[in-house]
Amino acid sequence: MTYEAPLYRPPSEARSLILQLTLGCSHNQCTFCYMYKGKPYRVKSPEAMREHIAWGKAIDPGARRIFLADGNVLGLETPLLLEILTTLYREFPALERVSLYGGPGDMLGKTPEELASLHKTGLQLVYLGVESGSDTVLQQVRKGVTSEEMITAGVRVREAGIHLSCMLISGLGGTTHWEEHALESARVISAINPEYLGLLTLLVEDNTPLHRQIQQGSFHLLPAEKVLAETRLLLENLQVTDCTFRSNHPSNYLNLAGVLNQDQQRLLAEIQEAGEQGRLRPEGWRAL
User: Which residues form the Radical SAM core domain (predicted)?
Assistant: First the structure.
C-alpha cells in the first residue's frame, strides 16, 4: 500500500500520519493551483479506505496525529466521515488529533449540527484556504465563493468547536489589487477570528490558467518589496484574538512567527528591518 502522488500536507502536519482517503480536489478550479490538475477527484471505496487505515496502523500504530488527504476531505458525506473518525480513534489508541483540508463550499454544505457531531467524534482541526478576502480577487482566481460566504464557512466551523487554520496567499492580487487584497483579507480573517493563520506567497507553475494570464500580460506578479508592503498592511489591519500566525512556508520571502494581535508591533518591526536590510529569501530559493 502506497500513496498516489502527488501528496500534499500543511507544514504543521510534518510529523502526522497521513491517510489518503480521497484523491485530488473536489473544486479544482482555482487559476493559481497546480496541486491536483492532473489528478481527477474521486473518493476511495469503503474497502480501499479500510485497507489504507490498516496500512497506516501497521506502519505507525502509536500515531498521535492523523491528517486526512487529499484536498477537501470534509466534502465526504457526514455519516461516512463519522464512521472514519470512530474507526481511527478505535484503531489508534494514542490518537489525539485528526485534521483535514476543508474547502469553503464543503463547509457551507455541512449544517451546524453536522459539524458539531464531527467535532464530538474527534475532528479537531480544519485547514481552510481563504486565499484572499477580496471579492475581486476571489472571482478572478475562480475560488467559487464570495468573501461573505467565506466568513460564513469559517465561523460555522469555529462555532462547532473545531479549530480552524486559515491560509492566505501573498501577491494573489498582483500589482493591480494588492492593497485591496491586504485590506479585505484582514477584514475576512478578523471576522472569522481563527486559531491559526498562515501566509504563503504566490508561486506560479507552468500550465496553470494564471501562468497563461501572466504570459498574456493580464496579470503582473507583485515584486518582493511590494509583498512585504502587502504583509505589513495586512498585519496593521488584522483584529484577531490569540491567533497563532506563521509565514514559514518556503514560498515566503520572509519568515514571521507570533501571536496576534499581541505580537503585531514586533512583527511589523521585523518586516521593516528585513526591507531595509534586504534580508529576503532569494527568488531561486523559494519553495526549496
Answer: 9-246
